[in-house]
Amino acid sequence: MPDHPRLTRSMTKPKPGIVHLGPGAFFKAFGAIYTQDAIESHGGDWGIVAVSLRSATARDQLGPQDGVYTSVSLGPSGSDTKVVGVICDVLVAPENPDAVIMAMADPAIRIVSLTITEKGYCYEPSTGKLKMDHPDIVHDIAKPGNPRSAAGYIVAALAQRRATGNKPFTVLSCDNIPANGKLAREIVVSLARAADSDLADWIATDVPFPSTMVDRITPATTEADVERLAASTRYLDPACVQHEPFRQWVIEDDFVDAERPRWEAGGAQFVADVEKHEAMKLRCLNGTHSALAYLGYLAGYETIAESVADTAFAKFCQKLWAEEIIPAVSQPEGEDLPTYCAALLERYQNASIRHRTWQIAMDGSQKLPQRLLGTVADNLAASRPIQGLALAIAGWMRYVGGVDESGQAIDVRDPLAAVLREASAAGLDPSSKVANLLDIDAVFDTTIAQNPVFREAVMSAYELLCKKGSRSAVEAIADE
Ligand code: CS2
After folding, report:
1. Predicted-complex ipTM score
2. 285 C-alpha to center of ligand 1: Å?
3. C-alpha torsion 179→181→182→184, nearest 10
4. Mean pLDDT by 10 residues, the chain (480 residues)
5. Cβ(458)–Cβ(441) below 8 Å
6. In which element (H, E) is residue 298 found?
7. How far apart, in whole angstroms, are the C-alpha atoms of residue 299 and residue 405?
8. Origin, by domain of life (predicted)?
C-alpha cells in the first residue's frame, strides 16, 4: 500500500456525555453515526468515550487519528463516505480499570451504552439469568473494584455515583437480544446483589434500562477495505467501517431525566414498547442470517450475498419467512411483515457487502435461542410447520461438529465450541449426534429438547444434510 498519511481530525471534539462499552465495527457504523447526526442537528454535549473491555485494537486504530474514522456506506451501485468525529477518547479497560470506572462515574456522563455481543452479558441464553459461575462474574464478585465484565464496570461506577450522591446514568443495551434492556437490568442487578443488596435495590428502582432494536448490516473491516478506501481518499484509516445504507433503531424512551441525544434526527424511532420490533428483527433477519450462515458455509459460500445469489437459498429464505417465521411474529405498528422480509432479501443480495457466513456463524450457542428456537417453540404450540427452521438448526449442528462437507476443519468460534464438538463427536451416528447436542441445556431448554416433533424434524434434517449435502438439502426443502 502506498504511504498515505493518517486521517486527522478536522471537526471540533464534542464534550463527553456517553460512555460506550464495545466500540467494534457495529457501534462505529451505527450508534456513533446516529449520535453525530443528533449533534449536527441539535447540538449537545454527547461526545463518546469508547471503552474496549478486552483488546487494544480500537485504541490502537483510533488513537493516532484522535478518535475520527470513516464510515463507508456500500449500496448495490455506489458508495458514500462520511468522517465521524464523535468519539472523544478511547480507553482499554484491562490496562486501567480505574480510569474506566472514573469516566463512567463522572456526572457529565448520562448514558452508558453497550454493544458487547451476546456473550458479553455472561448469561445463560436458555434461561436469561446471569451465570454466577462464569469466570468473569466469579472474578467481579471477588474483586468489585477491579472488574472484567461489562456488568462489573456498570455496578462499580453506579456504586460510586450513589456514594457521592450523584444521579445514575441510563444503561442502553444495543445488542441483538430480545428485551435487551431487561436482560441488562437482570445481569447488573444480580451482580450488584451478590455484594450489596441496598445498591441492587437502588439500581433496580432508579436506573433505566431501555430496550432497543438495532439494525444495520456491518461486516468486519478487512485490510482490503482499508486499502480500497486509501486508494480513493488518499489517507490511511485502519479504523474505517463498511456498512449497508439501511439502518433502523427503535428505542424505548426511558432515560434519566429524559436526557439523551436527539437521535430522531437520524431517524431513530422512540416507542413505549420495543418488544414487537425486536422480535420481528431477530426472527426475520437474524434467524435467516444464521440459517444462511450455517447452510451457506457448508455449501461452500463465503458470503451472505453469494448464498442468496443461489436461487435455492433465496427461495429457502422466502419459504422460511412465509411459512414458518411471519406466522410466529406479531406485526409491530408501522411495519408490514411481507414487505419487511422482501426488503431483507434485497439487503442480503447487496453484493457490495461482503458479510462472511463464517462471521455470522460465530457464537451460535448464544444466538440460536432468540433467532430460531423461540420461533420453533411458537410453531410447535400452534401446530405450524418447522421443517425449514429444523434444517437451519441441523446446519448449525453440522457446523459445530467442526468438519465441513469436503472433510476440512471448520474454525468454530463459540464460547461452547469444545463442548459442542465433543457432544457431536461422542455420537456415533447422525441421530445420536443430534441427541447429544439437544442435551446441551445452555442452548435448548428441556421443553423444546424433549418435544418429539422437534427431535424428529431436526434428526431427519440432519440426515438429509449428511446424505445430500447442504445445497441439495436446501433446494429440497425450498421446492417442497
Ligand atoms: C448478524 C448480525 O453477525 C450476526 O450474527 O446476524 O450482526 C446482523 O448483521 C445485524 O444484526 C444486522 O442488523
Report:
1. 0.99
2. 8
3. 120
4. 88 97 98 98 98 97 98 95 98 98 98 98 92 98 97 98 98 97 98 97 98 98 97 97 98 98 98 95 98 98 98 98 98 96 98 97 97 98 98 98 97 98 97 98 96 98 98 97
5. no
6. helix 287-298
7. 8
8. Bacteria
- Name the residue among 59, 44, 169 with its Cα closest to residue 114: 169
Residue ranges lining ligand 1, Cβ < 6 Å: 176, 215-217, 285-286, 289, 359-360
Separation between Cα atoms, residue 67 and residue 9, nearest integer Å = 8
Ligand 1, residue 290: give the atom nearest the CA. Answer: 6
Q: What is the mean pLDDT of the chain?
A: 97
The residue written with cell numbers 439487503 in the block is: 347
Q: How far apart are CA 33 and CA 334, in angstroms?
A: 24
Cα dihedral value 55, 58, 60, 62, nearest 10: -170
What's the pTM? 0.97
Round to whole Å and give the CA distance between 302 and 309: 12
| Mutation test residue for ligand 1: of 285, 290, 297, 344, the one with most atoms within 8 Å of CB | 285
- DSSP state for residue 340 in the 8-state scheme: H
- Distance CA(165)–CA(404), nearest Å, equals 57
15, 405, 419 from 71: Cα distances, Å: 21, 37, 38
Q: What is the pLDDT of residues 133-176, one digit of tens each?
A: 999 999 999 999 999 999 999 999 999 999 999 999 999 999 99
Residue 68 CA to residue 437 CA, distance in Å, equals: 45
Burial call 347-374: b when 16+ CB within 10 Å, e when fewer: bbebebbbbbbbebbbbbbbbbbbbbbb
Question: What is the rounded CA–CA span in Å between residue 19 and residue 13?
Answer: 15
Domains, the chain, ordered by start? 16-272 (3.40.50.720), 275-479 (1.10.1040.10)
- 420 CA to centre of ligand 1 in angstroms: 22
